[in-house]
Amino acid sequence: MRYGIDLDGVCFDFLNPFREHLNGKFDTNLKEEEITSYFWHENTDGFNEKEFFDEFHKFGKAGSYRTLPVLPGTLDALERLVNAGHEIFYITNRPEYTRQDTIDALRENNFPSNKNLFFTKGNKSLIINKLGIGVFVEDSETVITEIADNTDVYIYCVDYPYNKDIERVNVERIKDWDDFLLAEAI
Ligand SMILES: [Mg+2]
To answer: Where are the domains of the chain?
Structure first.
């Protein structure tokens, strides 16, 4: 089986480093559980949409994607997948300017099959169908909806306050990588 793996919110903790960056910049006290939208400016009066996206790009261009913490259980789960004979492909909507930081982070953290890295611009379904991916692990509600609309892939949604509204037949909610391994019996 070919597995498609999202990076931020699935393999890397993007939320907390960026949350701390925004809280420092705007003197806000945004907490993880308050982020109920993928567009965080909708969850606070502390910054507006333009400020949110300006800081998002500043954060990324400062090399932050090179040093995001790896989420617990990630490497163990990915190695188990590969050892069980499966193939893994990392498919991310990160901006193009993060490419080298992403390559470096995957290598430095010893991610298996780290050459299987694809950057998309919103429509992951194209590459999922092209590669013949059977299972995808994702956290973005927008991306999950796009994949569910345009592929037959089975989707694991990593549970966050910002993706509680998803109700699709091909989507299974998981807390963490342990849940994933249990569900996939790996
Ligand atoms: Mg993500």
So the answer is: 2-13+70-184, 15-66
> What does the pLDDT look like over 123-144, one tens digit per residue?
999 999 999 999 999 999 999 9
CA 146 to ligand 1 centroid distance, Å: 13
How many Å lie between the centroid of ligand 1 and the Cα of residue 140?
A: 5
State how far the Cα of 32 lies from the Cα of 15, in Å rounded to an integer. Answer: 8
Q: 49's torsion region: left (phi>0), alpha (psi -120 to 50) or beta?
A: alpha
Q: For 45-175, where are the E strands, in sequence order?
A: 87-92, 117-119, 135-138, 154-158, 171-174
H-helix or E-strand spanning residue 5: strand 2-5
pLDDT digits (tens, 9 = 90+) for 93-110: 999 999 999 999 999 999
| Phi, psi angle pair for 44, to nearest 5° | -155, 155
Tally of CB atoms within 10 A around 165:
8
Angle (nearest 5°) at CA 173 between 37 and 175: 85
Q: CATH classification of 2-13+70-184 is 3.40.50.1000, yes or no?
A: yes
Ligand 1 centre and the CA of 174: distance in Å? 14
